[in-house]
Design a protein that fits this description.
mainly alpha, 119 residues, 2 strands, globular, single chain
Length: 119
């Protein structure tokens, strides 16, 4: 899949970022805050490999977290397992083959699929 088809920051709603549990920008490396290294495992990133997690504000200033595909897939999978049991929309799972009505679950599932495909 070309890098322009990969999930971009504007495709990841703030409630999904909360489920992914980004690290505290005050305790990570500057290269992780500026998106040169994966925000979770410090893997070097390129435009073709990075999953852009947006431009965020923090008490220490703006930062631009990005992830490698494997880490975002892992975090999204964990997040989906934690999110779904407490989500009314997720508990009312549609028939097999029908998409869930929960946007958070839909984005997390997409991140898992994309990350495992490219990781």
């Amino acid at each position: 899949m070309p890098s322009d088809a990969r999930t971009r920051a504007h495709d990841i709603p703030p409630d999904v970022l909360a489920v992914l549990v980004l690290p505290d920008p005050a305790v990570i490396l500057e290269d992780q805050r500026r998106g040169a290294l994966c925000v979770w495992d410090k893997t070097p990133l390129t435009l073709a490999t990075a999953v852009d997690l947006g431009e965020l504000d923090s008490p220490i200033g703006r930062w631009w977290p990005r992830s490698c595909p494997a880490c975002v897939a892992d975090r999204a999978h964990r997040g989906l397992l934690e999110h779904a049991p407490g989500c009314e929309a997720c508990r009312k799972q549609p028939s097999p083959g029908e998409p869930t009505v929960c946007e958070t679950a839909r984005v997390l599932y997409r991140l898992v699929k994309e990350g495992r495909r490219h990781g």
